[in-house]
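Comment on both lines for my students:
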Amino acid sequence: SLVERFNRSLHEEVPNFNVFDALKQMREISEGWVVEYDESRPL
């Protein structure tokens, strides 16, 4: 269920705030989002 929550949050939050011009930019933004997700969300 933890992975399902992570995937749902990723799909709901990241695309809504960012427009990706290139795969590299998408990776950078996604990696930043993962760090934020891991550090700021309660379990």
In short: The mean pLDDT is 81. The CA atoms of residues 20 and 26 lie 6 Å apart. Residues 2-40 form one domain. The two ends are 11 Å apart (CA to CA).
